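Task: complex structure prediction.
Instruction: return structure tokens for all chains below.
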Amino acid sequence: MVNVMDIPEEEYIFPGTRACAGCAMALIYRIALKALGSNTIVTVPASCLTVLHGMQGFCTTKISVYHTPFATTGASASGILASLEDKGLADEITVLAFAGDGGTADIGIQALSGAAERGTNFIYACYDNEAYMNTGVQRSGSTPIGVQTTTTPEGKLVHKKNMPKILEAHGIPYVATANAAYPLDLYEKFKRAKDIKGPKYIHILSPCPPGWGYNPKDTMLIGRLANETGFWPLYEVLDGKFELSNSSKRYLDSSKRKPITDYLKAQKRFKSIDEKIVKTYEKYIDNTWKEIKSRLESS
Ligand SMILES: Cc1ncc(C[n+]2csc(CCOP(=O)(O)OP(=O)(O)O)c2C)c(N)n1
Ligand code: SF4
Ligand SMILES: [Mg+2]
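Output:
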């Protein structure tokens, strides 16, 4: 297990990015780059992460970043890797695709699926702020039920898409969930992914103060509640073997979980939900953990 002293001091993002105060995505990116080091090329589609990098002519990172059209993150990663292979550099340089939930669960899903199926040796990280934030909070396939966005003014009607499961169905060697509020776990997962050959997929919950409607100082608190209520369990699937991460293990016992209302009531995006939606969440969480238990028992 890593501790805070294991995290390298070197920063790969210069201070003063264009991300909002309290942005979890900026923290996730910072930790991921510390885990992967300077021999990394990142490919990024249109998103808040593009904005973080700055206007044309500037770049807030010390590493090479390729800005790719919205739908093409997976395909661009395969292209970068092919070029590195051609130059004999593929073993030295890590290819990291870093996209938002809209760029992953919706418009980029076929390019990602293709890269996973081809066995591209890359890490695909999805920072999931659960909506299209960069363009003013529209719903995505990863927006949870009941959330108010500009395109779901009365609350989204269906649950979020389960992207980690979809990637698992591709039979790739590594799939993990993570959460910006657990940076050591996040660091460890990127480190592990770096040493595995083939496609690796890490799906990270990324609280967003303006999009979720909470005070920027509460990003870690909100992220922790997602785990403590059982809504966002942390786990890894390594070569098909399912393992619950340490920070989520105690929530196998339902009595240890906080009520989901602690999470929902702390964010303005859930302000239109009623008792029926709360019950839907309770059932969703129960089902999620029943499945986790049966996977652990059968492995
Ligand atoms: C083909 C195409 N359609 C739409 C857009 C406009 N657009 C830019 S960023 C964005 C939202 C991205 O959402 P997500 O991937 O969740 O990242 P976030 O903004 O939340 O960080 C959209 C719709 C675009 N750049 N290209
Ligand atoms: S809108 Fe949300 S995800 Fe985008 S930069 Fe601001 S806090 Fe980060
Ligand atoms: Mg998003």
